[in-house]
Every structure is written in C-alpha cells, then in structure tokens.
Amino acid sequence: MATTSVYQAFQLSVANYADRPFLHIPSSAMEGTGDVDFTYAEANAEVTRLIESYSKTGLSIGDRVAVLMGNQAEVFMHWFALNSYGVSVVPVNAELQTDEMAYLLENSDARLAVGLADKVHLLQNTVDQFKLNIPVVADTSVKDTVLPALKSNAVDNAPTKNIGLETECALLYTSGSTGKPKGCVLSNDYFVLSGAWYRDAQDYCKLVKGKERLITPLPLSHMNAMACSTMGMVMTGGCLIQSDRFHPRTWVQSVRDSKATVLHYLGVMPAILLSMDHGDIDVNLGDQIKFGFGAGVNPKHHAPFEKRFGFPLIESWGMTESGITNCITAIREPRHVGTSCIGKLPNYLQVKLVGEAGTEVEQGYQGELLVRASGDNPRRGFFTEYYKNPEATAETWEGGWLHTGDVLRQAEDGSYHFVDRIKNVIRRSGENISALEVEACLSLDANIGQIAVTAVPDEIRGDEVFASVILKDHSTDSIQSLDLSTLEQLANLIFLNAATQLAYYKLPGYIAFVSELPLTASNKPQRAELKKMAHAIVADFDQQSTCFDLRSLKKKSVNK
User: Fold this and answer.
1) I need a surface site. Which of 122, 158, 251, 535 has the fewest CB within 10 A?
2) For the chain, first and last CA: distance in Å?
3) 10 Å Cβ neighbour count for 27?
4) What is the chain's mean pLDDT, rounded?
5) What are phi and psi of 167, to 5 degrees?
6) Domain end residue (candidates: 408, 440, 458)
C-alpha cells in the first residue's frame, strides 16, 4: 500500500500490527476515570465509524475543520478520519482566550468546529461572541451535521485532484516576529516524512518496529506531538502514550506504569525534575528508557539529569516550519553534553550561518541558521506556506533558504551549538510567545502609556515574559515618588486585565515600571538594548523597587 497520506500510513500499520497497542491514555490524563487503550485494529474501527459520520457533512478535499480535543484519544480518530477525505485539521488549544480562539477560527477559514462534549461550549461561546459563520458540534454529533453549501463566489473547494502527499493535512499556528500567530500549512508529505525520519533513525534514536512505547506530555496542537511522536509510532507500529500534560510529582511512576521505552521532553521538564525531592522513589529509569528526545535542556542540567535518571537526553533543533524531517539532532557521539550541542549536519540538510550583513560567518563564529533540504527540492519536508501571508512566506524563504531566526555556532569538530534567538519570540516551557502580541494586548490597559516586552532567562522554563512599562500620566521622575504598595497594586491590576485577553503562559512574569525605554530614531524599541536592560534588572532583582515578580500568578486557573 502506497503511503501518500497520514491515513494511508495508519492503514499500513493496521494491516501489519492489528493486535499491537496503538494508543494508551493514562488514567491521570482522564481525571482518574481509568486508562484508555486502543490496539491498531480497535482504533481503526473507530476511525472507520467516523469516516462514515463525516460522509454526509459535505466536507471535501481542501476544507478545514477546527478540533478542540486536547490530548485525548478522540483527536487521533477525528484527524485520521478527516485525512481520509483530504480535509485538514486546525488544532485549537483550550487555554486560548476567546479573542485568540476567534482569530484561529476565522483566519483558518474552518468550515466546521468540533469539540469534546465538555469543551464544545468554548467553541460555541467564541462563535457566538464574534458572530462567526462556523457551525459548532460535539465530537459525538458529527453524523447529524450537514454543512451549508459554499456560496458561488466563495473559493471552490470541490475535489480537483486525488488526495496525495501535497494535500494539506494540518494548519498549525505558531507565534513569529509579527503580532498575530501565523498559520503553517503542513502537507501529508510533511507528516509522512516526519514519521519516516523517526522510523529510519539510527544510533541513540533507533526504534524497534512493533516494540516501542513512547510517552509524551506535549500538546497535540504542536508539531512535535503530531508529526514526531505520533507519526513515529504510527510508522513503526509502536504505542503512543499520550498524557494530558506534564505531572512532575507522578512522572516517574507514570513512566514505570506505562512501560514506556522512549520519552519526549521539553527543557523545562529536566529542570523541574532535578529540583524535586523524590523521596525513596528510585528515579533511575535506565533499565527501561532508551532515550529522551527533545530540546532546550539547560546546559548545566544536562549531565546531572542523565546521571540521576539513567538515560540520555538527545537534544535536537527543529521548528514547525522545518519539521522533524529537516532537524539537526545530536543522535550520536560526541554529543558534548552541557554545551547546547545539537549535533552534526545530516546529509539530508544543507545549512549556513550568516551574520547581520547576510554573509556566511567562519567556523567558530555565531550566525543565524539558514537551512534547506539537499537534492532537487530544497523545500522538501518543510511547511508549505504561511496561510494568507505570502509576504511572510517569501521573507522566510528569501534567497532559497529558510531563515530560522536562531543563532548557532559551529565548533571545530563540525558539531553545531545553539546560542540564542534573534526573532522577537519568547520561548517559555515550549510555547512560542510573540512579544508584539503581548505588547498589543497590554497597550490597551488604561494605566499604560508605553510598553515593551522581551524575554528574560528563567531557571525552570527557559524564557519568561518581561514587560517594561511607562505609566500613563506620569512624568519621568514621578514613578520613584509612588509608594511600593501602589506600584505593586498597579502591577497586579495590569496582570489581571491582561489575563482576560491572553492565555496564561503569555502573561508577563515580570512587570517593571520604568521612566524611559531604549528607542530607535523612528521611536521603535531597540530590542537588543531592551533585552540587556531586562536581563540586568532580573539579575539584580533584590535591589529593584519598581520591578515585580508575578510568576506565581501564571497558572491556568487565572484565565478561568
């Protein structure tokens, strides 16, 4: 059977591994209601039922369906069923605020929004509040849904070609250097090649077909969980162990109980696990876990984690636009543990590091990473485009190279080391946060005259959101005249106002009241100087009187 789509890849494994476990959702991810398990055959039966349910909706190749299903089993079944029709999925994060969710629904041109029964109200409330013309249904009611026919002047979505590798599979939104998230169009080829990368990986990341059990807490609204862990297991007949989120206190026991052999992580996870007192629990998992695959581990945590927990953390570089297919991974020695090493260049990828002038830097010097695929098609395995944003697509692919916005350095032995990001993106606990989006929200606060947002280091989460605020109606010197309690109240008020408009992880972890901001001649923030200023304030936090640490308020419940 030819593998020309995600659905076809799944069908191939159904044929080869029918009775093998495909999916395990731990009870901890089901609010204690019990584990959920599917073999490949059982999952296929559910997918087949959903294919029948969608058959009468009027959806056709090229359409999109927004899905709000978190990390539950339903998201896989609906995804595969829709993919069989050439319909793309738009994963929606339940943590988004109403206006953020509305933007995704409207910008994606979704023809239908489907949510779990206990979450479908979030979609319906959004559609009602913003008067969006999108039908909303619970995942169990799809069979009763008939979509209105497209207007004659609308884009023709009727099938014009067979479903294949170039057919859109998913539209994932990722924050970039612009204020609003950009929709990355991802094809079947993107996902199939991602699975093939994992299937064919060697050395530390070698998988045994039909045997592996991969545990991940990463959200299925992100590329890693959809394209890497899911497709890696699908194309090797493995079992995906999907948690709802990272549970630090029960993580070791969950790994043990699930009989996982591989795990995926974000840099925040080793940091948290190393800081915990695990009591008498044996945390050495080296007899069970072959490797962890992820990115962003704090260099000083890398070796201590491997020693304590007994398995290697394989650091990799990748982004939604590049996919797993075009990643750089420290898949073999030397891994240079503790140096932010991401490994040597694979033969399927071409890279160059360029300085500010756009010229290639010499070995040992840092520069922005530019990448493209080797061979005749330099965009093979990459994202197709930014939806409705040809200018951003062209800018990203300027000169025939994907401009990543990440700064790397190549060492003498040829290995690449991650240095920093030049894009105006804050990477907090695996979430990409646009500083401009946060600025746009905070600027509406009646207390704020000017605002600038940047990233500052966080020991646990990698980056944290730092907001420098000039209060409205306050002169240069008047901030110092305000008493500490007044400023603290203002900081909390600004935070809580923003919490009604932004997902909790985007909220400022620090708010500093300042008299002036470093600006360019055109009155725009000098981002490099702003970052230096913010870093200095955090580094000397105990001596600050006008900066407030609000990180303890950044909880999911703050939005609810």
Assistant:
1) 158
2) 47
3) 13
4) 91
5) -65, 135
6) 408
Tell me: do 394 and 514 sit in the same domain.
no
Amino acid at 348: Y
Q: Do 377 and 459 reside in the same domain of the chain? A: no
On whether both 373 and 515 belong to a single domain, the answer is: no
Looking at the 3D structure of the chain, how many domains does it have?
2
> For residue range 159-206, what is the model confidence (pLDDT) as tens digits?
345 899 999 999 999 875 556 899 999 999 999 999 999 999 999 999
Q: Is residue 413 part of a domain?
A: no
CATH number at residue 335: 3.40.50.12780
- Within 74-131, strands assigned E span 88-91, 112-115
> In the β-sheet with 328-329, what is the strand arrangement from edge to edge?
36-39, 21-25, 239-242, 213-216, 262-266, 291-295, 313-317, 328-329
Which residue range forms the structural domain that includes residue 250?
6-150+162-408
Tens digits of per-residue pLDDT, 215-249? 999 999 999 999 999 999 999 999 999 999 999 99
Residue 498 token pair: 């923003």
pLDDT in tens, 374-426: 999 999 999 999 999 999 999 999 999 999 999 999 999 999 999 877 777 78
* Judgement on whether residues 432 and 352 belong to the same structural domain of the protein: no
The number of beta carbons lying within 10 Å of the beta carbon of residue 45 is 14
Note the pTM of the prediction, 2 decimals.
Answer: 0.85
Longest dimension (CA), the chain: 74
Contacts of 218 (CB under 8 A, 6+ apart): 224, 225, 229, 264, 266, 430
